[in-house]
Each structure stands twice: as C-alpha cells, then as structure tokens.
Amino acid sequence: MINLRKFLFIYRSFTPLPLVIALLYFASPTLPFVYFGMAMALIGESIRINAVRYAGGATRTTKVGAPSLCTSGPYARTRNPLYLGNMIIYCGMALIAGGPFMWEILLVVFAFFTFQYSLIIALEEETLVNLFGADYETYRGHVPRLFPRITPWMGSDDRSPAPLIKTLQTEKRTLQSITLILLLITARTYFGSPV
Q1: Tell me, what CATH number does 23's domain have?
Q2: Is residue 130 part of a domain?
Q3: DSSP 76
Q4: Would you say 113 and 83 are in contact if contact means Cβ atoms under 8 Å apart?
Q5: 1 lies in a domain?
Q6: Is 142 inside a domain boundary?
Q7: Which residue segment(s) compose the domain that 99 sits in?
Q8: pTM, 2 dp
Q9: 193: which residues sit within 8 A by CB, 6+ positions away?
Q10: How many structural domains does the chain have?
Q11: How far is residue 65's CA from residue 129's CA, in Å, rounded to a whole number?
C-alpha cells in the first residue's frame, strides 16, 4: 500500500485540481486583486524558471531523489524554490479569480500547499540524506526548507544556469497550465452564470 507522502509526491501535479475547480466555480475577478494576483503569479513563475535553470529537467519526475545536489542559484536561498514558486502562483490565482469566498479560498490554498509540501519535503529529505550524506546535512543546516533566507548561502556548488530557451522548454507544461487556468477564469467570468 502506498503511503500518503509517496502518493502526494507522485501525484503532486494533480492534487491541486479540486482547488482549481473551486477557483473556477466561484470566479468573479475584481480590480485591484487581479493585478495583485498577476504580480504574484509572475513572481512565482520567475522563481520556478530560475530554479529550473539550475536544477534542470530532473525536477520533473515521479521518483524521489536527484542526480546531484544543487545548492546554487535560488537553491542557495531555499531548499525548495519550485514548491515556493508553486505556492505563490496558486495564491496569485486565488486573487485573480476573486469571488465571494476569495479570502477563504486563498487561506485553503496556502494551508493545502503547506500541508502537502511539508509531507513531500520530508520524504525527499530522507532520500537526499541517504544519497548525499554530510553534504546534504550541511546544506540543510544553512538553507531554510521553504521560505527563503535574505542572503544566499555560499556552498561549493558552482554550476551555471542553463540557457533560458532550454529552461522554457522544460517549463512548458507549467506555463501551459497557468495559461489554461487564466483562460478558464476569463471564460467563466464572461460566459458562465454568476454564483
């Protein structure tokens, strides 16, 4: 029987679907929240793109682990910049969607991702300790789990970021998902019946 942490890790791209459905059902965008939400989504996706530039496509896997220990770029500020970016994107989407329960949905989105990522990160860290031993323990001792430190930690990883074009190809699925959600919010707003 698969445990909850492994289930959430394997299906992490699909577990937010109920949140997306709630966003769409109650969508009724209003200014200035659309602008705040768009800014948050852009910040979140920028964090993701920067993280993928350093970690590469190895982050898109259903197997826990990593081919190497990435501690440079955004990984020098937070051990999980991709998850941080996702949280910011989805909180931004909640603001963009608006609606009568915007603040409640925003709180649920934040709580859901905090819960899901705490379980996933715990599973990943067990594996990374086994793979990288003392190097990972040192990294974990200097860099926060999710919410970033102000100054980057200076570890021994000196990798260069991948070209932006290559990164955008790797990040294509996330960009498509964001675009689809925005189009569905727009369609719901203009063609759907009011709640």
Answers
A1: 1.20.120.1630
A2: yes
A3: G
A4: yes
A5: no
A6: yes
A7: 17-189
A8: 0.89
A9: none
A10: 1
A11: 10
